[in-house]
Amino acid sequence: MYHGGAIPGFSAEVLFLPSDKLGIVVLGNMEWVHAQELAIAYRIIEDYLKLPSKESERLSSRISNSSTPASESKLPMTLSIADFAGNYNDP
Predict the structure, then answer these.
(1) How many angstroms separate the CA atoms of 58 and 53, rounded?
(2) What is the pLDDT of residues 40-90, one digit of tens each?
(3) Which of 4, 45, 81, 86 would bridge 13 by S-S if both were Cys, CB 3.0 to 4.6 A apart?
(4) How many CB atoms lie within 10 A of CB 39?
């Protein structure tokens, strides 16, 4: 299950994989950073399920190669997807 949205200055992506007991929420402090947020979420899913990093790398590459002007709020990520990877636990 997935849902995303944005209002001026904020955006969010929420993904749930109930059968895998995984829920992901990615928040952004800019509007229209959908591709960046999805790249982060997909990387988490790929790592959690021990899948190849195909989809997250495809999105990351598309973002990095984007020629969209910054004025349209579609900025490239300043860190690689790998910089966001890790184990995050909520006690």
Answers:
(1) 8
(2) 898 999 999 999 988 888 887 877 776 544 434 455 556 676 776 777 776
(3) 4
(4) 26
